[in-house]
Structures are given as C-alpha cells and as structure tokens.
Amino acid sequence: MRNAVLRPLLILEFLIAIEAIFTLWSQVGGQYHLDLMYWPWKFGLSVGAAGLIVAITACIALDDGAITRRSRLLFSLLIGVVLLAGVVTYYYHLHEPADQDDQDEPAKVSAAIRSPG
Fold first, then answer.
1. Are 33 and 12 in contact (CB under 8 A)?
2. What's the rounded Cα separation, in Å, for the pair 60 and 30?
3. Which sign does the torsion angle of CA 44, 49, 52, 58 carry?
4. How many CA atoms lie within 13 Å of 82's alpha carbon, on the beta-carbon side?
5. How many beta carbons lie within 10 A of that of residue 45, not counting itself?
6. Is 105 strand, coil or helix?
7. Which of 56, 67, 91, 106 is the most core-located residue (most Cβ within 10 A)?
8. Worst-scoring range by mean pLDDT, 49-58, 86-95, 103-112?
9. What is the pTM of this model?
10. 112 and 53 Cβ atoms separated by less than 8 Å
11. CB 10 within 8 A of CB 54
12. C-alpha angle with apex 43: 38 to 3, nearest 5 degrees?
C-alpha cells in the first residue's frame, strides 16, 4: 500500500483506537475509578496503547500482511500497557475515598440499639 494512502488511514485508526480504549477502560475498570485517576495516567496509557495499535497495523501493512518479530514485540508491549492500566485502575479501586453517608449510618444504628424503648 502506498504511503500517501496509509498515513491518513493510520491517523484515523489512532483516533478510533483512543475512543475504543477509553470506552473499554470505563466499561471494564469502571467509570468512577477512571474519574478518580490522575490525568497523566489516563493520557499516557491511552496514547501509548493507541500508538502501539497503530504501530502494529503499520508494521503488518508494510510487511505485506506478514507477522514479524517486530509486530510480536509491539503486541507484547501492548499487552504490558493494558496490564499496567489494570494495575493502576485496581490501585485507585483500593484507595477510593470513603462515602460520608456510610460513616454516619453506623452511629445512628448503634444509638438506636442502645436506647431502650
């Protein structure tokens, strides 16, 4: 495929990959955890994953559909980025702020239990 046609298609694929990554991440990891996450994590991991997806496609397209050692390396890096995104999401799941309503209810229940009648 000619480079004049390939470049705009790869740019379009990058934009679609960004949207697909954020949609998948919010569905799998939870939108709440994604909202809590510090923005450089979201930016770096999503742009990195989208860039790797485009690099894999370009590598396969330029090698006439052959899966080479380089495309396997890029795919393994993509798996690493996805796993890192899972670890970061799990970290934010473990360290999410406690709800204020949850802290007030046990005090009300225990006060109601202690008072007779």
1. no
2. 33
3. negative
4. 14
5. 20
6. helix
7. 56
8. 103-112
9. 0.78
10. no
11. yes
12. 175
Give how far Cα 23 sits from Cα of 26, 28, 56, 88, 101, Å: 5, 9, 20, 16, 30
Structure tokens at 80: 């690493």
Work out the number of other CB atoms within 10 angstroms of the CB of residue 40: 8
d(C-alpha 76, C-alpha 22), whole Å: 20
Q: What is the DSSP string of 74-94?
A: HHHHHHHHHHHHHHHHHHHHH
Contacts of 82 (CB under 8 A, 6+ apart): 49
Rounded Cα distance, 37 and 14, in Å: 23
- DSSP letters for 9-67: HHHHHHHHHHHHHHHHHHHHH-HHHHHHS-HHHHHHHHHHHHHHHHHHHHHHHHTTT--
